[in-house]
Amino acid sequence: xxxxxxxxxxxxxxxxxxxxxxxxxxxxxxxxxxxxxxxxxxxxxxxxxxxxxxxxxxxxxxxxxxxxxxxxxxxxxxxxxxxxxxxxxxxxxxxxxxxxxxxxxxxxxxxxxxxxxxxxxxxxxxxxxxxxxxxxxxxxxxxxxxxxxxxxxx
Length: 154
What we know:
This protein is mainly α.
């Protein structure tokens, strides 16, 4: 087999197989996100914004419009358009900052969270069940690996 397709070195080939499995997962996840966007009539960028905002909430980060623009790699004007679309659809709330009463923080609405669980819930349940078949040590190893891969992509 050609080296660019499958490395001759068995250790490198085994590592590349893991990378290909990870790529397959990413592609399947992106297809699910695309289907969610289509069925909810959202732009793909709107879905990315919602995911970023939910990640911020889980990390206890106060998400501001400028923070969201940075996460999305967009200008403030383009991010404002995303925020307006999501607000108009009832998926996003603009609330007062907890630390600076003059600025706003963004929060995904409860109805948008419910909508996400309706669509992604069965998929997430299957992924959680699969993860729970691993022991704590195995889960920690997978978490460390995925964290390192994420850093390698940054």
